[in-house]
Design goal:
This protein is of the alpha/beta class and 607 residues long. The protein contains 13 helices and 29 strands.
C-alpha cells in the first residue's frame, strides 16, 4: 500500500534546537542519545529527550533517538540500559547501526537502520525488514532509479537525506579518520580527514595536483528534487545538521516546509504527519546559512564539480567586483550590504579568503587587513548580519488553527474551541446574567474581536461562529477570561491523544544476503557476531576499529571519482591522453587509488 503521509525530519543538537525544529516545520526530529551517537560531542540527557518528546507530541511530531555507533564488548550492558531509558522517555524510534543490538533484551521501540548501516541494496533492506526494522535510512549516493527499485521490492519505510553536509565515503564504510588519527566515524568521532588537502600522483609518481581539497564535497541540496523523491517512494525527508546552530535549523527547515506545503496544496491525497500550519516572518534562503555551495549528488546523474575547493562556508553569491582599492571595493549587486556582514572570495590559488564589512558608503564597501581584490572577482556573503539577527528573534512559525463556537445556555454562555482536525476540543461555560444589547452590531463585533485574540499562543482562529438567538451585551473582561481559560486547557490537552508506535522484535532465522563478511560489516562485539551467525553467515571478521592495522585495507569507498573530476574518465569522458591517478598523499601517509569502473566507484587503500 502506498504511504501518502510525508515527514520532514530535522536535526536536533539539543532540547532547544529540537523545539526550534518543530516550531519551524519539522514533522519529526532526530537527537543524539546520552552516549553512542554518531555525533559523539552532542549527546543528550534522558531528561532532555523526555522533555523534547512531550513537546513534540503536542504537535504529533516524532522524536527519533540516534544510538548509531558500533559498540565495544564492555559497552553492551550500558547501551542496553540506555535503550530502555530512551523507550521510557517516550521516544518514537531508535536509530541504530550496530546489528548486535537486535540480540539484546529490547523494549518494543521501533528500530531505524542508520545510514551508517550502508543501505544501498534492496536485498539487505529486505533482510532488515524481516528481522524487525521499521525504517531504513538510505545511502546518500543512491539515484532515483535505485530508490524506486528498493521501494518496489520492500515494504519498510524509506528515509533519505535532502540537505546538508556530505560524507565522501559511503556512510559506515569510512575508516580513513580511524586509520590516520584513531578517531572513527563509526564511533561518532570522525576527524573529517576528507576535508583536508591532498597531493595526487599518477602511476609513475608524477605530480598531478598539489595541496588540493580533492575529497571535500559540496553540501547536498535536493530542494529541486523533492517531488521526484516522493514519486520514487521516499516518505521521510531528512536534513543533516546536528552540529549546526539554531538559525540554520530555522532557515533550512522552514525552506523545505514551504516546498512540502506547496506540494500538499496541489496534491490533496498526500498529507503531513504532524498537525499545524506554518507561517514565517522571513523568507527562507538556503544560501544564507552555512553551505559549501551545493550539489544534488548522484540523485539524477554523475556530474562534475561535486567537490568544494574549501571546507568553509561560502554563502550566497552577491556579484562581481567592479572597482577595487586597497581598503574598499565596489561590487555589481542589488543586495543591501551592511556593517558586520561577512564576505569572502576565492583567490587565484582557489583559497577562500574572508573579510568583515567595516563600513558602507556610496556603494563602497570598506574593510581592513586585506590585499586589493581584482576587478571581476565574484564576492559571496557567508554571514548575513540582518538575516541572522531577524530569524534569531523569531520564535515560532507553527500554529494550530481552531474553530470557535460561542453559544447561549440557560444560565449564560458556552465557548467551544476545537482544532481543525477535531482531534482536540474544549468547552467552557460562562455563568452570567443576560442583558440585551443596546447596539446589537457593536455587541457582535465586540464578541468577535475578543474571541479571535490568541496573543502569543500557538493558536490561530480558522472559523468563528456566534450562535445567539438574541444578542446580548457580554463584558470584555468575561470574554477574555473564558477565551484564555479555554485556550490554556486546549494547549494542555495537545498530545493527549498522540499514540506512540511500538514494535516488538520477534527473533527468527532469516538468512543474510552474504555467507562471508569482512571488516566492513563493522562487527565489534560478540552480539553482532552472534546475530550474523544466527542468520546464516559462516565466516566473519572483526571491525576495522579493533582489528590489526598492518594489512593493506580499503579505508574509503566512494562514488566520487577523482579520475572523472579531472577529466580522465574513459567511460563518460573522452580524454586526449590516458592518465591514471594512482596515489593520494597526506603528510607522511600514502594511499593507493583503485577505480572500479564497472560499479563506478573509487576505493582508497592503505599502502
Amino acid at each position: 500500500m502506498k504511504n501518502n503521509t510525508l515527514e520532514l525530519l530535522s536535526p536536533a543538537k539539543n532540547l532547544e534546537s529540537g523545539k526550534t525544529a518543530i516550531n519551524f516545520g519539522a514533522d519529526a526530529v532526530y537527537i543524539g542519545a546520552p552516549k553512542f551517537g554518531a555525533r559523539a560531542v552532542v549527546g543528550n540527557s534522558i531528561q532532555d529527550i523526555e522533555n523534547l518528546c512531550k513537546y513534540a507530541h503536542k504537535f504529533h511530531s516524532k522524536v527519533f533517538v540516534a544510538l548509531n555507533t558500533i559498540l565495544y564488548e564492555k559497552e553492551l550492558a550500558e547501551a542496553e540500559k540506555i535503550i530502555h531509558q530512551i523507550y521510557n522517555s517516550g521516544a518514537d524510534a531508535l536509530i541504530i547501526q550496530d546489528i548486535g543490538i537486535l540480540e539484546m533484551d529490547l523494549p518494543p521501540i521501533p528500530l531505524h537502520a542508520s545510514t551508517q548501516a550502508h543501505n544501498i541494496d534492496f536485498r539487505k533492506i529486505n533482510f532488515y525488514e524481516k528481522t524487525g526494522f521499521t525504517r531504513a535510512i538510505l545511502a546518500r549516493e543512491l539515484s532515483l532509479h535505485q530508490i524506486a527499485e528498493i521501494r518496489n521490492n520492500t515494504h519498510i519505510e524509506l528515509e533519505a537525506f535532502i540537505h546538508g553536509a556530505l560524507c565522501v565515503s559511503y556512510s559506515g564504510q569510512c575508516y580513513m579518520s580511524a586509520y590516520i588519527g584513531g578517531r572513527s566515524g563509526n564511533r561518532g568521532e570522525c576527524a573529517q580527514t576528507c576535508r583536508l588537502k591532498y597531493d595526487l600522483y599518477d602511476e609513475n609518481n608524477k605530480l598531478l595536483a598539489k595541496n588540493k581539497h580533492l575529497l571535500s564535497l559540496k553540501d547536498m541540496n535536493r530542494s529541486a528534487n523533492i517531488i521526484d523523491m516522493i514519486n520514487a517512494g521516499i516518505t521521510s525527508f531528512k536534513i543533516e545538521g546536528r552540529l549546526k546552530d539554531q538559525n540554520y535549523v530555522k532557515n533550512v527547515t522552514a525552506y523545505y516546509r514551504k516546498i512540502l506545503d506547496n506540494f500538499f496544496n496541489d496534491n490533496k491525497e498526500f498529507k503531513q504527519s504532524s498537525i499545524g500550519r506554518f507561517f514565517f516572518d522571513f523568507e527562507p534562503d538556503l544560501e544564507k546559512t552555512f553551505n559549501r555551495r551545493f550539489t544534488d549528488y548522484f540523485l539524477t546523474e554523475r556530474k562534475p564539480e561535486m567537490t568544494s575547493t574549501s571546507p568553509k562556508s561560502v554563502g550566497k553569491p552577491l556579484g562581481r567586483v567592479k572597482k577595487s582599492d586597497k581598503n574598499f571595493i565596489e561590487i555589481d549587486s542589488k543586495e543591501k550590504i551592511i556593517n558586520g556582514d561577512g564576505l569572502c572570495f576565492f583567490d587565484k590559488n582557489e583559497e577562500l579568503i574572508g573579510f568583515s564589512v567595516n563600513k558602507t558608503e556610496n556603494n563602497k564597501i570598506y574593510t581592513k587587513n586585506i590585499a586589493q581584490i581584482s576587478v571581476g572577482t565574484l564576492i559571496f556573503r557567508n554571514n548575513d548580519h540582518d538575516f541572522n539577527k531577524k530569524i534569531s528573534q523569531i520564535e515560532n512559525g507553527r500554529f494550530i488553527f481552531v474553530n470557535i463556537l460561542f453559544s447561549e445556555t440557560n444560565s449564560g454562555f458556552s465557548l467551544k474551541i476545537s482544532t481543525e482536525e477535531e482531534v482536540y476540543s474544549v468547552e467552557k461555560t460562562l455563568e452570567l446574567k443576560k442583558e440585551t444589547a443596546n447596539n446589537e452590531q457593536k455587541a457582535v463585533e465586540n464578541i468577535k474581536n475578543q474571541l479571535q485574540k490568541t496573543g502569543n499562543t500557538v493558536f490561530k482562529v480558522n472559523k468563528l461562529n456566534i450562535n445567539l438567538p438574541n444578542i446580548y451585551f457580554v463584558p470584555i473582561s468575561e470574554l477574555n477570561k473564558i477565551r484564555r481559560e479555554a485556550l490554556d486547557v486546549l494547549y494542555t490537552l495537545l498530545g493527549s491523544k498522540y499514540i506512540i508506535s511500538e514494535n516488538k522484535i520477534e527473533k527468527n532465522n532469516a538468512q543474510f544476503i552474504l555467507k562471508e563478511l569482512d571488516y566492513k560489516a563493522n562487527i565489534s562485539n560478540s552480539l553482532a557476531e552472534k546475530f550474523y551467525l544466527n542468520h546464516g553467515v559462516e565466516k566473519t571478521e572483526q571491525a576495522f576499529e579493533i582489528s590489526k592495522k598492518e594489512d593493506r585495507k580499503v579505508v574509503m569507498t566512494t562514488k566520487l571519482c577523482i579520475k572523472y573530476n579531472l577529466g580522465f574518465c574513459p567511460t563518460y569522458q573522452n580524454p586526449k591522453e590516458k592518465i591514471n591517478p594512482k596515489y593520494l598523499k597526506l603528510d607522511n601517509k600514502t594511499f593507493i587509488l583503485e577505480f572500479d569502473c564497472k560499479n563506478c566507484e573509487m576505493k582508497i587503500i592503505t599502502k
